[in-house]
Design brief:
With 89 residues, the chain is an all-alpha fold. It has helices spanning 2-43, 55-86. The longest helix has 42 residues, at 2-43.
C-alpha cells in the first residue's frame, strides 16, 4: 500500500508541475498579447473621432489585464499548493 501511495503522489506532482509550466507559458504569451493590444490601440490615437482610446478599446485592454492578473493569481496558488504538499521535510 505504501508503494501505491508513493506512485499516486508522484503522479500528482507530475501533473502539478506540468500545470505550473503550462500556466507560465500562457502567462508570458498573454502578457505579450496585452502589450500588442495596447500598442495597436495607441498606434493610431486620433483615428476614432479625436479620442486616444475609445470605450470599447479600454474595455478590451482592461479585460485582458484582468484576465492576465487572474491567471497570475492562479499560477501563484498552484505554486503554493506544490510547495505545501510536496516539500521534503
Amino acid at each position: 500500500m505504501d508503494k501505491f501511495h508513493r506512485i499516486i503522489k508522484l503522479i500528482e506532482r507530475v501533473i502539478i508541475i506540468s500545470l505550473v509550466v503550462l500556466m507560465a507559458i500562457v502567462l508570458v504569451l498573454s502578457t505579450a498579447e496585452v502589450a500588442v493590444i495596447v500598442v495597436a490601440k495607441l498606434s493610431n490615437p486620433l483615428e476614432d473621432g479625436g479620442v486616444f482610446i475609445d470605450i470599447t478599446g479600454l474595455m478590451d485592454i482592461f479585460g485582458f489585464f484582468l484576465i492576465v492578473l487572474i491567471g497570475f493569481e492562479l499560477f501563484e496558488t498552484v505554486k503554493w499548493y506544490l510547495k505545501e504538499n510536496f516539500t521534503e521535510t
